[in-house]
Amino acid sequence: MSTVTCHISMSLDGYVAGPEQSLHDPLGKGGMRLHDWAFPADGERSEVDARVLDEVTRDVGAYVMGRRMFGGGDGPWDESWRGWWGEDPPFHTPVFVLTHHPRDPLPMAGGTEFRFVTDGVHSALAQARAAAGDREVAIAGGASTVRQYLAAGLLDSLHLHIVPIVLGAGERIFDGVGDPRLEQVAVVAGPTVTHVRYRVLR
Amino acid sequence: MSTVTCHISMSLDGYVAGPEQSLHDPLGKGGMRLHDWAFPADGERSEVDARVLDEVTRDVGAYVMGRRMFGGGDGPWDESWRGWWGEDPPFHTPVFVLTHHPRDPLPMAGGTEFRFVTDGVHSALAQARAAAGDREVAIAGGASTVRQYLAAGLLDSLHLHIVPIVLGAGERIFDGVGDPRLEQVAVVAGPTVTHVRYRVLR
Predict the structure, then answer these.
(1) How many domains is chain B partitioned into structurally?
(2) ipTM, two decimals
(3) Is the CA virtual torsion A169, A172, A174, A177 positive or negative?
């Protein structure tokens, strides 16, 4: 059965998004700084960071994400809205979007297809596993989606990119997840970020 | 002038002590787990962790700590009380204790002398610098003391020992410290902990 992974960038104070998140600013105030290592302003990703990014994405056969990460609000869908990610999203696999509002699948260029799941995190994971086959299922985010999978004991592996910034407010991934047992399995230093992979023990 | 450093063990959710701290349980519920890497139950500290611990302590000429870390409460001192640390505390230098209540210096075995400072963090640091000479001043803790020095821009270097546990509650070091500019300068992987040193930029 496919491994369930999550890789996510976190500030030193535990935030994966800044405060004042909105549909127009999904990462919140300062939240983009979490991703500078992966998407540097000068376009020159370091060799180490490029390798880590390749490692955490190359074996993914399906993603699961929250509706806000896709680009959805609380209400029913405006079906003309095709999400944040442009016409050729960077996933290249099925992406299962957790939502309360049904919607037909949305095929995009490059192999990404958004599929909307209204019956919860277990169902989304089962569908993602079926789509991924032997490849990994990655929980893409945001914070609330990661928390739900972590709290439910459904993650096998958590890969944190620890960024030396202090956001002060926003969304944390470990709030309310209980006391998961994590085993440190790999540490890689990028120039401006520390990549740490943990196994989630059962 | 001496460098001002701090090295501290932190959970993945940003806590340096667990909840329900008291005079009888200064690290709070679960807080001892933060220090397993440095003080393992079997006494067998790993070579890497031993080296890191040596690096962060060998050049220290004076420490600053909060009254609770010394072992003090809110009231005046009971002068028969000689702190948590036993008769030969592991500091071997002057230790400046922040308190609202004056007390005579308390010399201990092995070169440690607790000196009580009632006029605030700047004064404690000035006294510690004078005592340390060319060696480092280390802010020993607890959380509130570290926060005060970080918020005041008085730290030069912060060395985090990032421990893969989730405490869920307790004392955080980055709450209310503003937006310090930190530069990652060294990453070392212990078997069960990630040691990361940051320079605090001015």
Answers:
(1) 1
(2) 0.94
(3) positive
